[in-house]
Amino acid sequence: MSPITRFKKFSGLLLLFAFVVYGANHVYSHHRDFQIYYFICQHFWIQEEGLSPQYIYDYQEPETGVHYRYAPIIAFLMLPLTFFELKAAAVLFFLIQMAALLYSITLVLKWLKVPLSEYQKIGLLAFFVTGGYLLQVFHTGNIHFVALFLTLWAFYEFGTGKTWRPALWMGLAIATKVTPLLFLPYLLLKKKIKECLAVIGVLIMLISFPEIFNGIESNMDLLKSWSVSIMNKASEARNHSLHGVLTKYLTTDKVDPNDYKNIHIAAWSRATIMKTWTGLLALMVIVLALLFLRKQDSREFRFLEYSLVITSILILSPHSQRQYFCTLLFVYIGLIGLVIKIPTQLHRFIMQTLLSLGFLVNTLIPALMPNR
């Protein structure tokens, strides 16, 4: 191994170590979303009635004023962490996120059969491009990255012929974040009926799981409260999905807080926005369906299909927060890996352009202009 190669490896590991130390130290004192999960779980142990819908969805975090607006199953998944003090539990959850980040690099590159020697370089490049999103989701302690990582793991294992374990990962992702439901139509279009039924079966079990502690009626109330929370979420500010962008730029409504600059290109009504969004949604779904119906089953093509679904979730969802774009990490890992496998000059130029734009939009601009 040459001195330059050793230096690159050492620099990469040093950077990773610095990020882990900084992130663990930061999340030790800043853990907005995780703190809500934690206090809700504490209520489970303290109150005889368990996780009552009235308590969960009326709960407001004292310091930030943020309400619990997450899936009921998240409160049960987080229960083991309540055996630790809040700050220690937050650091443990951060380490779980880091494990998911590192394993996602391994999964994608194993999927595409990229040489092991390229893992570190590809991982660092993909991290730099999506670092702005990753830092934000890790900063808040939101479960989004871990939940969507499970879809990647599920897709990889479905490709190896397994059924029930990847169905568990996909079911967990859907039960916590809903939007991965978009993967079910994909499985149906690819005629993976067994896998689709397995996911649905696991999902039913996960949704029904709280009934063990709360009873059927109380669990139904929890699910209803969660569905109301989801509907309300679509009208919240800082919406970076297609629907949010159309509303922000093509109406005169002030949809974002004062620290965001409002730019109005047109003065459409909300009804026109809804019709436009519905039309574009239908068009994108048709295009995706036609692509997925193509009879190609190479590992590279399957990964590109996964990338299209994971990106479509961000665009087609009624509401996407900026931090949700952290899942583009999976896409960038694969695209960089494919360029290394197919090193033509044109592919390299395209990828270098995409990486530069990605770094500019995802990491550099947010760092220099946090209120853009």
Descriptive notes:
This protein is mostly helical and 372 residues long. Helices cover 71% and strands 0% of the residues. It is built from 17 helices and no strands. The longest helix is centred in the N-terminal third of the chain and has 27 residues, at 3-29.
What key attributes describe this structure?
mainly alpha; 372 residues
Question: Would you kindly provide a brief summary of this structure?
Answer:
With 372 residues, the protein is mainly alpha-helical.
The helix/strand order is HHHHHHHHHHHHHHHHH
Which band does the percent of strand residues land in?
under 5%
Global geometry: globular
Distance between the termini: 44 Å
- Whole-number mean pLDDT: 80
- As residue ranges, the low-confidence spans are none
**Structural class of the secondary elements?**
mainly alpha
Largest sheet: none
- Radius of gyration, whole Å: 21 Å
Helical percent range?
over 70%
Count of extended strands: 0
Q: In DSSP terms, counting alpha (H) and pi (I) runs of 4 or more, how many helices?
A: 17
Topology:
Blueprint: H1 3-29, H2 32-46, H3 53-58, H4 72-77, H5 86-111, H6 119-140, H7 144-158, H8 164-177, H9 183-189, H10 193-208, H11 211-214, H12 216-233, H13 242-250, H14 270-292, H15 299-316, H16 328-341, H17 345-368
Helix pairs in contact: 1-5, 1-6, 5-6, 5-7, 5-16, 6-16, 6-17, 7-8, 8-10, 13-14, 14-15, 15-16, 16-17
